Amino acid sequence: MKLRITHITNSLPKLSVAVRILLYTTSIVLSAFTIVYVVRYDEITPAAAALFMLSGASVAFSVLYVVNDIGYIIKNIRLSDTFRKIRTNKRAERIITDYSYRTAATASVNFTLNSIYAAFNAVVGVRSGSSFYVSLAAYYFLLSVIRIFSIRTTLRHNHTKESQRYELLTYLVSGCMFILMSFVLVGIVTVTLSTDYKKEYPGMMIYAVATYTFIKLGFAIINTQKASRTRSPSTMTLRNLCLADSLVSLVSLQTALNAEFGGDAEFTALINRAVGSIVCIVVFVIGAVSAANAARGLKKLKNGEKSDVGA
After folding, report:
1. pLDDT tens digits for 11-42?
2. Which parts of 149-199 are beta strand (E)?
3. pLDDT tens across 115-148, in order?
4. Are 150 and 170 in contact (CB under 8 A)?
5. Of 210, 190, 191, 215, residue with least CA distance to 254
6. pTM over 0.85
């Protein structure tokens, strides 16, 4: 039996609202003290270590109870009269019940943001003569192209054989473009290392950026696994795009962390090279696996067999 987070949250002892609020407040305060201590002091005393462990434990329990609270709130929303009225709208009903359609709808927002970010980096790169920003613009431009075709394919999918074939073709092209993106990423990492590029954030902003990046990466991995269970090529492509986007954010965060805390120049370069290489390989593997699955699905479809994907 698979262990889900709901199995853990449901087994937690029941706490009153006041006690849960106290737990959440304590977690925030302890986390703030931990961050301040790490920033201001280099030495870790036994008292500080105890503070770190207490902070980690309180945050862990808070997360579990927050998940429980969110589930309770969602359950009540679904039982409300307002929610029933919303579901009378066909488009809203489809967004609620159809995971692939919902993924495509949210991806439309990401497409707009990616396009703006790609254009911004292109302008900055051309005006400043920076190959780094030009490479970044090319990467996000490819992300936008794959995303718009995947959205279009998802929205027009009607479970016919021709629709399935079109979806698999889009999946194949997207896989090839992921492979191309991995080489663009090699260029970004190479420029970062060769020009000693450093991204810096003012004050304690780097901690917020690090938190956001890891949360974004965590959700991308979870959603990628969830999309793989749908067997929908377009949905899997859209979730893979989110993962690729998160990986680039990880590379950017790595350079920022080294700029903020890095010591030995050779060790810093080694870490940047290692993280960059892993990210490039992961994006390449995503593309290769997608292209291989699409080609196998198209071959089965041509032979009149049922495809493993796109059914």
Report:
1. 778 888 888 889 899 999 988 888 888 777 77
2. none
3. 888 888 888 888 877 777 788 888 888 888 888 8
4. yes
5. 210
6. no
Are 247 and 283 in contact by the 8 Å Cβ rule? The answer is: yes
Tell me the HSE value of 111 on the side-chain side, using a 13 A CA sphere.
Answer: 16
Instruction: Give dist(CA 239, CA 83) in Å, integer.
Output: 27
Which one-letter amino acid corresponds to residue 49? A
CA dihedral 110, 112, 117, 120 (to 10 degrees): 180
How many other CB atoms are there within 10 angstroms of residue 99's CB atom? 16
- C-alpha to C-alpha distance for 167 and 153, rounded to whole angstroms: 6
Helix 265-302 / helix 233-261 crossing angle, nearest 10 deg: 180
CB atoms within 10 A of CB 142: 20
C-alpha to C-alpha distance for 109 and 114, rounded to whole angstroms:
9
